[in-house]
Design goal:
Blueprint: E1 3-8, H1 24-39, H2 44-49, E2 52-53, E3 56-63, E4 72-82, E5 86-95, E6 100-109, E7 111-112, H3 121-124, H4 126-140
Antiparallel strand pairs: 1-4, 2-7, 3-6, 4-5, 5-6
């Protein structure tokens, strides 16, 4: 399953060279990740209401070609790894012609709001666990 989110490059997202400032791609990763979660029928706000957060452990980005103000981008997001505690998302940001501009990953764990200690999604968020297991299984059969 790949979730797709369109982004129109805004002037405020560009740097002095007229291209998207590199850190803005991380925001676009988050927009894509949130859309993927919603496409799975889940919401981060519900996770937080249940007493959990999902912080970033690490993020990687490879910049292939620039995007500029006035162009449109497509953020393609998928789950590439899930082990019951940690989830790794994969991202591809392509331009309106389909050329790859940025590729990356981010790793996350679910933690208790009270202790900030990692928790097993299977135990505390079974609907999230089931959705991620289903996505990972379907990916392995492609």
């Amino acid at each position: 399953m790949v979730s797709e989110t369109e982004i129109e490059v805004r002037y405020a997202e560009t740097d002095q060279m007229g291209v998207v400032y590199h850190a803005n791609y991380l925001i676009w990763f988050e927009i894509g990740r949130t859309k993927l979660v919603e496409d799975l029928g889940l919401r981060y706000v519900d996770m937080e209401d249940d007493g959990y957060f999902c912080p970033v452990l690490d993020v990687h980005a490879q910049y292939k070609r620039p995007l500029k103000y006035g162009e449109n981008a497509l953020v393609k997001t998928r789950v590439i790894e899930y082990n019951g505690v940690k989830v790794v998302y994969g991202y591809e940001i392509v331009d309106e012609h389909g050329a790859l501009c940025v590729a990356g990953t981010s790793s996350h764990v679910v933690v208790s709001k009270e202790t900030f200690q990692p928790v097993a999604m299977r135990k505390v968020l079974p609907n999230w666990h089931t959705a991620y297991e289903r996505v990972v299984r379907s990916t392995m059969h492609e």
